[in-house]
Write a structure and sequence with these properties.
The longest helix has 25 residues. It is built from 15 helices and 25 strands. The strands form five sheets. It has a seven-stranded antiparallel beta sheet with strand order 19-20-21-22-25-23-24. Strands 1-11-10-7-3-4 form a six-stranded antiparallel beta sheet. A five-stranded antiparallel beta sheet has the order 5-6-2-8-9. α8 runs parallel beside α11. By secondary structure, the protein is α+β, with helices and mostly antiparallel strands.
Length: about 700
């Protein structure tokens, strides 16, 4: 798009009830950054109240209509994403301003590649607006979403503000507390921010004069910042001020603070004051007293559901894929529901309230190696259908596969009310928590600490929430059958191993994605709509014939697909990536540049040159041998180079579990080692071009 152009979203995609707007930039120094903000405006072009102003100290709307999702690496810079549920935007809001601001005297003219992109609910990019004339301003409006009748449209604005975030917000009716105007020093700001993070707000029911319960009264207490991690009780977080609340609050309390607030936890551990290294730090969710599977299941369910209800971003992340709306969430454990002569007690219940409408789900959890029981889940499905629940959610260490349900249940087609059966792996729960607290950020420091405590609990050996950890009973017989060449095609045990391999790859993708803050997905080389069972049967036949398992992982921003293969005959793991040859320059220059980029890669990395022709194979050698002579990578016959294949080979574990000598641990370690020592040094691909859509500047 060009500046001033506008376009209707419905003309670009059918899936625009929810959209993601991404603001991006690059910094020549590598240190430049900016913060996004959103303003919801009524017909007069003003916010209805200060609650319509979303920024780093107020990142999420209570109804889920606006969510500041945080930053992610992109190309040579970063990208800040904002999620909008356009169906939840209040009817009186006519425009949504999307802006960003810089601080500390920095200006947008110092940044490069300023851009805004908009993607639909499926993640497909719909439009792009590139900005090359930001100038010397500290705040900038990138674009706006606005209504025309029942349709939402987007306009490329590109307007700067010299007065920064406070000036921009004030122009649209927000009452800003300006630290500069108050005479605060930098030291004052640091103290204020620390105290803000430590404020605990406790709600208690107020009592009217006649003794009847009345509105909630909030009491606020401030504690020392260093005492926050040891807090035993978490106070309720007050909701943002709504329209019409101005008369009930003082001016000082109603003005949003624009002091920068940290919402993600640092990776490096703080120094400990413990006298003895063996001391165990106090944890909010202890695991030392867990002695039985029943205790583990009860504790894990209660911990997870409590955190989901207290951290809206996390609860929404886990339930959005199950059809739950964005709204106020309540969670319950150890409930009792009538079912024939014997009442049933599911592990938990989730309720989400949006505009007076309820979405409800029953929860059944398993820990350790315990499997879900078909008759138990069937009973919960029947109860949910009779009582009007929307879903039954199962949670275990197992990983669900496409087209292969974990439990077999019968659905009564005669019932008008349909119940969805959904599954979560504990590995996926940990992945979502890690993405929020390490990469994308949450609403406040208390939420980040809660998620960190949940993650520490899930990762503890005694929690029983370890994810997929066993290749199954068929693993040893299949390996033995491959060794002595007695494994025949059609053996059902080979299919079991293929399914376990696919579960393992999905879990490895979740773990790597959580570490990187990037989307990592397994690649399925099959025609769209093909039967997953047929694909697995074909892989089982290949396993019987060749003794090999293979998978591919697509990593956002990576120069190629990461391939991991296990050769059960030789007990070797191969991780590799193919990168295309540059479009310009000379082959010798390509070889030298590749060797320079791999200066810190392992010396035993195999480098193979890919050339045109039937075989496609060219010169090959270890990085140790090629470093002094990059020209050895060039084909002697002058064949055209199409790319390079980089490969690491290591031994694989023999056990079926995830112990140090286990197969699962060895695959996970091989993938992480290859990405961390090889792929991170490779040149990222150029971002794909997005087609521009232009319309007349008039609405």
């Amino acid at each position: 798009m060009v500046k001033g152009a506008n376009v209707g979203l419905a003309a670009l995609s059918e899936n625009v009830d929810a959209v993601i707007v991404s603001l991006g930039w690059a910094s020549p120094t590598g240190e430049g950054d900016a913060d996004v903000s959103v303003l919801l405006l009524d017909g007069d072009g003003k916010v209805r109240s200060d609650a319509d102003f979303y920024f780093y100290n107020h990142p999420v709307a209570p109804d889920g209509s606006v969510q500041l999702l945080g930053k992610a690496p992109a190309g040579e810079g970063s990208e800040d994403r904002i999620g909008f549920d356009l169906t939840a935007i209040p009817a009186e809001v006519e425009r949504i301003i999307v802006a960003a601001s810089r601080y500390g005297g920095a200006r947008f003219g110092e940044l490069e590649d300023l851009r805004v992109t908009l993607a639909d609910g499926s993640g497909e990019d719909l439009l792009r607006f590139a900005i090359d004339d930001a100038g010397s301003v500290s705040a900038f409006i990138f674009g706006e979403l606005y209504r025309r009748g029942d349709e939402w449209k987007f306009r490329a604005v590109g307007q700067g503000y010299d007065t920064g975030l406070a000036g921009l917000a004030t122009d649209f009716g927000v009452d800003i507390e300006d630290d500069a105007a108050d005479g605060n020093t930098a030291e004052d700001d640091i103290v204020d921010e620390a105290l803000d993070d430590a404020v605990a707000v406790e709600k208690a029911p107020a009592v009217e004069a006649d003794g009847r319960p009345g509105a909630e009264a909030a009491s606020t207490s401030v504690v020392a910042p260093e005492a926050v991690p040891q807090a035993v009780a978490l106070p309720a977080v007050p909701a943002p001020r709504g329209p019409g609340d101005d008369a009930q609050r003082t001016r000082a309390a109603s003005r949003p603070r624009t002091a920068k607030k940290k919402v993600t936890l640092p990776r490096a551990a703080k120094k400990s004051l413990a006298d003895n290294d063996s001391w165990t730090q106090a944890r909010l969710f202890p695991v030392s007293a867990l002695k039985s599977d029943r205790e583990r299941e009860t504790r894990a369910t209660s911990v997870l559901l409590a955190v989901m209800a207290q951290v809206p971003e996390f609860g929404r992340r886990l339930t959005a894929g199950f059809g739950a709306p964005a709204g106020r969430m309540e969670t319950f454990t150890e409930v009792s529901l009538p079912h024939g002569d014997t009442p049933r007690r599911p592990d938990g219940v989730i309720r989400v309230d949006r505009a007076g409408k309820l979405w409800t789900a029953l929860v059944e959890t398993k820990t350790n190696g315990n499997v879900l029981k078909s008759e138990q889940v069937q009973a919960y499905m029947d109860i949910a259908a009779r009582r009007g629940y929307e879903a039954v959610i199962t949670l275990s260490n197992d990983v669900a596969l496409e087209g292969s349900p974990l439990v077999d249940v019968k659905i009564d087609g005669r019932r008008k009310h349909k119940v969805a059966l959904r599954h979560l792996s504990w590995a996926e729960v940990a992945h979502q928590a890690q993405m929020l607290i390490r990469h994308e950020g949450v609403g406040n420091s208390a939420h980040a600490w809660l998620l960190q405590e949940l993650l520490l609990y899930l990762q503890h050996d005694n929690s029983g929430c370890h994810g997929f950890q066993n290749m199954g009973a068929a693993w040893v017989p299949v390996r033995k059958g491959i060794d002595d060449e007695t494994l025949c095609q059609g053996d059902p045990r080979a299919l079991e191993v293929v399914e376990s391999w696919e579960r393992l790859i999905r879990q490895v993708s979740l773990g790597l994605g959580g570490d990187l803050g990037q989307k990592v997905l397994p690649v399925q080389r099959a025609r769209r709509g093909a039967d997953p069972a047929q694909r697995r049967a074909r892989m089982a036949d290949e396993l019987c014939a060749e003794g090999k398992l293979q998978a591919e992982l697509r990593i956002d921003g990576a120069p190629g697909v990461l391939t991991v293969g296990a050769d059960l005959r030789t007990a070797r793991l191969r991780t590799s990536v193919e990168i295309p040859a540059p479009g310009q320059g000379y082959p010798l220059t390509w070889a030298k540049r590749l060797v320079r980029r791999l200066a810190e890669a392992p010396a035993d990395l195999h480098v193979e040159t890919l050339v045109e022709g039937e075989t496609g194979a060219g010169p090959r050698g270890t990085l140790e041998r090629l470093r002094p002579e990059p020209a050895d990578m060039l084909p002697k016959n002058g064949a055209r180079i199409t790319g390079f294949r980089l490969t690491l080979v290591k031994g694989m574990g023999s056990g079926r579990g995830s112990a140090e000598s286990g197969f699962i641990r060895s695959v996970d370690d091989a993938v992480r080692r290859f990405h961390g020592t090889v792929m991170v040094h490779l040149e990222r691909p150029a971002p794909p071009k997005v087609a521009c859509v232009e319309e007349a500047a008039s609405g």
